[in-house]
Write a structure and sequence with these properties.
Blueprint: H1 6-19, H2 27-34, H3 38-54, E1 58-63, E2 69-74, H4 78-92, E3 98-99, E4 103-104, H5 107-110, H6 113-126, E5 134-138, H7 143-153, E6 157-160, E7 171-177, E8 184-190, E9 199-207, H8 211-222, E10 226-236, E11 248-257, E12 262-267, H9 270-283
Parallel strand pairs: 5-6, 5-9, 9-10, 10-11
Antiparallel strand pairs: 1-2, 3-4, 7-8, 11-12
Organism: Anaerobacillus arseniciselenatis
Keywords: DNA-binding, Transcription, Transcription regulation
Pfam families: Pribosyltran, PuR_N
């Protein structure tokens, strides 16, 4: 590789760390990459660490020892998250978004890469200290958000579908009860998509009663794997019994009045869960 001056080395190293989050990178890798002494690499990483933390880009963890190295953990500033979610709530409160059954039209939001990227970083901030092996989502609207979260956690995505695709090989299928329609439906996941014993983070775009998410939880159990968390972009107020107890929501649809054309959306339970997570980390 071309020999860099220190300024160029700092730029290239920063870019490499951002492109490889949650990956332990040995100092010898950077030393060989830039043909520089480990002491020089350590000084560079100290500079990057200070900038990352001062600008709320993330945390740079250093692991000592022969098998150690450095690991970049993406995070987001809480004030930034608040402002972003407030803007999202305002967008969702457009009465023209209301669909039959109390759902909202959200394809323009889900199809916004920049916004999904931001929300993905927020979920990754909360689950930064959790061992996650794979992100699971339901086709098709949850896919953009799932990939955004997976990018920041540096893990793969597995996609659950209603229909069988011959290109996915053999499947594991279950029947589940739709929370809103009370109909029995089928969901499937390719056997090769999930290894036994995996730690799964479920991500979805919308949750009302929670039937679909409850189904995905059951599907994870079929693979003898563990659900370590559930995150949704929007949760809707539900008068009947909700099928999922533990979940994290970015926003909450609290009222839909189609007659008066009123839609009320507020920030979900994200910050409550984030606070509890921080307390648990401090206790551990």
């Amino acid at each position: 590789m071309k020999k860099f001056r220190r300024s160029g080395r700092l730029v290239d190293m920063t870019n490499y760390l951002i492109q490889n989050p949650h990956q332990l990178i040995p100092l010898t890798y950077f030393s060989d990459r830039y043909e520089s002494a480990k002491s020089s690499i350590s000084e560079d990483l100290t500079i990057i660490k200070e900038i990352f933390e001062s600008q709320d880009i993330g945390v740079l963890l250093t692991v000592a020892g022969a098998s150690g190295g450095v690991k970049y953990i993406p995070t987001a500033n809480e004030d930034e998250i608040v402002q972003s979610l407030k803007q999202l709530c305002m967008k969702l409160e457009d009465a023209n978004r209301v669909l039959p059954g109390g759902y909202l039209y959200m394809m323009d939001i889900i199809g916004n890469p920049k916004l999904m990227n931001e929300i993905g970083r927020y979920f990754a901030t909360l689950f930064a200290g959790t061992k996650v092996d794979v992100i699971m989502t339901m086709a098709t609207k949850g896919i953009p958000l799932a990939y955004a979260v997976a990018t920041y956690l540096n893990v793969p995505v597995c996609i659950v579908r209603h229909e069988h695709r011959i290109t996915e090989g053999s499947l594991v299928s279950i029947n589940y009860v739709s929370g809103s329609t009370k109909r029995i439906q089928t969901m499937s996941l390719a056997k090769r998509s999930l290894n036994e014993g995996s730690n799964v983070l479920i991500i979805d775009d919308f949750m009302k009663a929670g039937g679909t998410i409850r189904g995905m939880i059951s599907l994870v159990e079929e693979f003898n794997s563990n659900v370590v968390g559930t995150g949704v972009l929007v949760e809707a107020e539900h008068t009947e019994e909700r099928l999922v107890d533990e979940y994290i929501s970015m926003t909450r649809l609290s009222e839909v009045n189609t007659k008066e054309k009123i839609v009320k959306v507020e920030i979900g339970n994200f910050f409550e869960k984030l606070k509890n997570h921080k307390q648990q980390v401090q206790e551990d």
